[in-house]
Design goal:
The complex is a heterodimer of chains A (about 350) and B (about 425). Chain A has about 350 residues and is an alpha/beta fold. Chain A is built from 13 helices and 8 strands. In chain A, strands 3-2-4-1-5-6-7-8 form an 8-stranded mixed β-sheet, with helices on both faces. Helices cover about 60% and strands about 10% of the residues of chain B. Chain B is built from 20 helices and 8 strands. The C terminus of chain B is likely disordered. The chains are: A alpha/beta (about 350), B alpha/beta (about 425).
């Protein structure tokens, strides 16, 4: 525990103030000339799209759109207010844009990358006005999502094993309930494993979902070893000739070493019982999560080899911008999005649709 | 202090706040405030300009967070006093209900837990299980009842049976869900709760302001509980919420165990947001876990410079009890970054097991005096512990480093390990 290279926030700050030059790896936009934001910047608050008092239950697509419209009001609405009708783009505009992106939970690193790309294009005189800037930004965000997009093929294996993980309260069990219903509707034989033996009544919750779609649940008593549940579930899945086994795990903060070890053990048991399994390790992320989602993705990927993301609770006002950052930084495809609490409120992620809806006027 | 010193410093502060998920409008206002306060102030003789800005920033943030304000639970009403828990799905309402009940029970109250989440499958069962684990009474509701009826009859039940606090667990909902928000408003009108606590996930991003604002507009909440703060989220959401709706954070949730609920300390959260490390929490956590006798023994040994391998092992085991190394290191200022650089250099849980094995394969004589461990002893130890000679060497090296460090700590802190630990943090902070 030597005090070498402890370049924390305050050290950086002090260095700056005391004139000590230190390679500053903090993400600051290049060469901003003026520190004040020009007063004629339009206020970044467009009138809220009247959240229509829903008389009938709106269709899924409408709900997705209305969900995303809130996202759009936050992100694109503000960008529009900022750039549309502006003939010249200056450093201030870009700086403001950077702030808007960061605060849409897109993540600092991705924001800086996006801004850099836009700046380069501006340098090459490709972007003449606000309109072009907006289009370029949309293109950048979309291309990042498309680059990682790989739909999940559950037919690739005779027995497809899916391990569902995430921090507490993101909606793992609910997502599994929806997945079970969906796969069953596709004519698949599904089995669920209640490997969350920690949280009170977690197995009951999963059973309730299983009951709704007529799917069996393998469970033990509360407090049992989750690996033992998984072991039994794997045996049962093979014996009952199941098509898809979905394993629900206890929510765990990614910083808890012992719980991450427990998860590794679950993985080991699965792959010992069923070769090459799990075929998908799905990290569930709450759309309302901020920068911490990056840390979650990093540590879960390291410990559990995450192969895909599910983004939940997009039916609220949460921007879900973090998905752009997480997907891009960790090369993870978004597989599903959750848009409500009903059993059919889970959809495939479609980058084009997602971005279009995001940018639709 | 000039525009220039202030400007650069504030740029850093702004980024730190944004990365901690503090709402951008809050950040903007805050930065402007500090700028006004800082420019032109006299630099105190005892501080550098940098330290002075840091102090202003820190103090301002603590002021926003309500440092010094009374954030205790208000139960001053005719019993039974109702408390409502509200929030988004998955924020941790049900767990917090249990924790709060447990806390009140310790304060000699008689709480009644009321499951009023009839929507999420098995939510009622969850609270009943939590109640059983804690030995708390849980009102017997079922999922086919109306939440408002549940709460109402629970209140009457409490009155008749002598419960003095009634904690109502409501279903998670989005603040824009008018139907469910009406339901909450109806419960509020019916039971007239003394406290409505908004439960917020520490990992929430920029939306925190809108969500909390939505709940506050409809329900006029009385306080906030910030959950899941035991992870590595900075919890900037709490700052945003306090700054925008002005309601105090009353408690923080620090783990899945049912006693992991603590009173909120504004200054600690501010340090956490600014990346100063949560030294106080660390020290408290350490104090809670470290066996006092063992620590006293360790202290006296350290004073006499007799820290041996046996103590090294004991220390490792105590650290293991405190939680993951990473979470502990993360709490020490400046260590977060350093940790990333030293990735792999510090012992993981597995490594601690190996260290245990190696030390247990030593004779008492070797443990007391490591300098007698020669080549053939090393070979024997490695065979005995199922490790390699290299690993034994590594451990010995690490141990000598620890010995050295302890000597340094002694110079730093007045006495003993705990103070030394605090002193280490303080020494690294720009001000005490």
């Amino acid at each position: 525990m030597e005090q070498k290279e402890t370049k924390g926030f305050f050290r950086g700050l002090l260095n700056k103030l005391t004139g000590v030059e230190a390679a500053d790896e903090r993400l600051t936009p290049v060469e901003t000339t003026s520190e004040t934001l020009t007063p004629e910047q339009p206020a970044p608050s467009p009138p809220p799209a009247a959240t229509s008092a829903t008389v009938e239950k709106p269709s899924f697509f409408e709900r997705l759109k209305s969900g995303l419209r809130k996202t759009k009001d936050g992100l694109v609405g503000r960008i529009d207010a900022l750039v549309l009708g502006k003939k010249e783009i200056d450093a201030d505009t870009l700086e403001e844009l950077e702030e808007i992106l960061i605060t849409s939970d897109i993540g600092v690193k991705t924001t800086v990358e996006l801004i850099r790309t836009l700046e380069q294009k501006m340098g090459r005189n490709e972007l003449k006005d606000g309109e072009a800037l907006r289009a370029a930004l949309k293109e950048e965000i979309l291309s990042r999502l498309i680059a990682q997009h790989r739909p999940l093929d559950i037919n690739s294996r005779k027995l497809f094993v899916m391990l569902v993980i995430g921090v507490n309260g993101v909606g793992k069990t609910t997502t599994i309930g929806k997945l079970a219903s969906r796969f069953t509707a596709d004519g698949k034989k599904v089995l669920l494993a209640a490997a969350d033996t920690f949280r009170a009544a977690a197995a009951e919750q999963l059973e309730a979902w299983g009951h709704r779609s007529g799917v069996d649940v393998i469970r033990h008593k509360e407090g049992a070893d989750p690996s033992a549940v998984v072991f039994d579930a794997c045996k049962a899945a093979v014996a009952r000739n199941v098509d898809i086994l979905i394993v629900d795990t206890a929510g765990r903060l990614h910083t808890k070493v012992n719980l991450m070890e427990e998860m590794k053990k679950i993985r080991r048991v699965i792959s010992r019982e069923i070769p090459e399994a799990p075929h998908e390790t799905l990290l569930v992320v709450d759309a309302a999560t901020g920068q911490n989602a990056l840390s979650q993705a990093r540590l879960f990927k390291e410990a559990a080899g995450v192969t895909g993301l599910a983004l939940t609770k997009l039916d609220g006002t949460a921007k879900g911008g973090i998905v752009v950052a997480v997907s891009h930084e960790f090369a993870l495809p978004v597989r599903y999005i959750g848009v409500g609490e009903s059993i059919d409120d889970l959809r495939d992620f479609d980058p084009q649709e997602f971005t279009d809806a995001l940018f639709q006027a | 202090m000039t525009e220039d010193n202030v400007k650069d410093a504030l740029r850093e502060v702004r980024l730190a706040l944004l990365e901690a998920d503090v709402n951008f409008k809050v950040v903007k206002d805050f930065i402007e405030n500090v700028r006004l306060k800082a420019v032109g102030t006299e630099v105190l003789t005892s501080l550098s300009p940098g330290q002075q800005i840091v102090r202003i920033v820190h103090d301002e943030l603590v002021a926003i967070m309500g440092g010094g304000e009374d954030n205790s639970l208000d139960l001053a009403a005719k019993p039974p006093v109702a408390i409502m828990m509200v929030g988004l799905q998955g924020a941790g309402k049900t767990t917090t209900c249990g924790k709060l009940g447990n806390l009140l029970k310790k304060q000699k109250r008689r709480p009644l837990l009321v499951p009023a989440d009839v929507y999420r499958p098995a939510a009622i069962e969850q609270l009943k299980t939590v109640g059983r684990q804690l030995g708390l009474e849980v009102f017997n509701s079922t999922a086919d009842q109306k939440p408002v009826d549940i709460c109402n009859s629970a209140l009457r039940f409490a009155e008749l049976n002598g419960y003095d606090v009634v904690i109502m667990d409501t279903a998670g909902r989005h603040q824009i869900d008018d139907f469910l928000m009406d339901e909450l408003a109806e419960i509020k009108n019916t039971v007239q709760p003394r406290e409505i606590l908004f439960v917020a996930d520490a990992m929430t991003g920029q939306e925190a302001v809108n969500v909390a604002g939505g709940f506050n507009d409809r329900l006029d909440i009385s306080g906030v509980v910030l959950t899941k703060l035991d992870g590595d989220a900075k919890g900037g959401a709490a700052l945003s919420i306090k700054a925008v709706i002005g309601k105090p954070v009353k408690f923080v949730g620090l783990g899945e165990k049912l006693d992991a609920l603590e009173v909120f300390h504004a200054d600690r959260l501010v340090s956490r947001i600014l990346g100063m490390g949560d030294v106080l929490t660390l020290v408290e956590k350490a104090q809670a876990v470290f066996d006092e006798k063992e620590t006293a023994l360790l202290q006296s040994k350290m004073k006499k410079n007799q820290f041996d391998l046996e103590d090294f092992l004991a220390q490792m085991q105590q650290i293991k009890k405190m939680g993951s190394m990473e979470s502990i290191m993360g709490m020490i200022p400046g260590m977060g970054k350093m940790m990333k650089q030293m990735k792999g250099a510090q012992p993981s849980e597995n490594e601690i097991k190996r260290i245990e094995a190696i030390i247990r394969s030593m004779t008492p004589g070797e443990r007391a005096n490591h300098s007698i461990i020669n080549g053939s002893r090393r070979l024997r130890i490695s065979k005995g512990s199922g490790t390699s000679v290299q690993e034994v060497n590594q451990l010995l090296k690490r141990f000598t480093e620890a010995q050295k460090m302890i000597k340094q700590l002694q110079k730093l802190g007045p006495k003993g390990l705990m103070k030394g630990l605090g002193g280490l943090g303080k020494g690294m902070m720009p001000f005490g």
